[in-house]
Amino acid sequence: MSPGPSAPASLAGTSWRAFSVDGAAPVAGREPTIAFTENRISGTTGCNQYFGGYTCDDGTIGFSPIGMTMMACDDAVGDVESAFTKALGGATAAAIDSEGRLVLSGPDGRLLFDPVPTPGS
User: Fold this and answer.
1) Predicted pLDDT at 8
2) How far apart are CA 21 and CA 121, in angstroms?
3) Helix, strand or coil for residue 80?
4) Would the N or C end of the chain have less CB density within 10 A of its end CB?
5) Is the distance from CB of 5 to CB of 98 less than 8 angstroms?
6) How far apart are CA 70 and CA 68, in angstroms?
7) Residue 107 burial (CB < 10 Å; 0-12/13-18/19+)?
8) What is the DSSP letter of 22?
9) Are 5 and 103 in contact (CB under 8 A)?
């Protein structure tokens, strides 16, 4: 039996692409992304760019108010953006699952991400 999700030692310097937004697959080619620096996040919702601060300690994650560009998003992409921003803003737990994927979860939903290789790795 494989081990369950574990708390990441650090998310700084990692980048991820969502493959599940609260149980739904995002629109192909418009997947939300998230990149972490030491204490900041940035990425795309599949339509708009976003940015903000975060803290992560022993599997507990929290985000400061997230700023975002305000382009209009159509139908399915807009629906994914709504679910993504709600789940991200409410995320309280961060884990890396047995397949090396990032799991962010909280009372407002669950986000699953595949790693995005960083240049030079």
Assistant:
1) 80
2) 27
3) helix
4) N
5) yes
6) 6
7) exposed
8) T
9) yes
